[in-house]
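Open question from group meeting: does this chain pack into something compact, or does most of it stay loose? Before anyone orders reagents, we agreed to write out a predicted structure and look at it together. Recording both the input and the output here so the notebook holds the full record.
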Amino acid sequence: MKLKVENRDIDAKHLIAIGQEADSKQAFCIISPELDLQTAFQMLHTLSLHMLNAYTISANGEQLPENPTKEQMDKLIAIKSQLYDMYNLAVSSVLEHYAPEFELRPDITADAIANEEERIVKEKYSHLSPSEKQEANQNIQKFKKDLLKEKMKKSNAKTVEEIKKAATAPDETK
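Structure tokens returned:
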């Protein structure tokens, strides 16, 4: 399969291409019809690993030196932790969309997970300095505002009050 990408000629045996159309921002995916599943997974996992490493370097602002300081390692671990959680959530979401009839751990309820997450957050928060607590609170407020804006875009509600009411209403799907 011969193609041209950014003035580069490519002769690929197998291809997985993911993009976003410039005008509509519609996502698209092209997969070689002869691509076997094992090779496809290997390609996707390689891409994922390279993407995570690239975003880690980008977020860090530099490559880690051969003998990093404790502060550099702490920063790197914080970045990797965030990316790990984001990737874990993304992959979980893919599996949930692919096979919603499967529940990975039916013995663990959403409430139990939420309660444990809350306990962990409160424990970590208690060890923050006053300035770190202030920054965390500001980030939480920004996150809440962004989440509310996103809910408003996705709902038919006309006012913030209607969104808040819908967000706090009991989940009737349980």
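Observations to bring back to the group:
The longest strand covers residues 16-20.
The chain has a mean pLDDT of 81.
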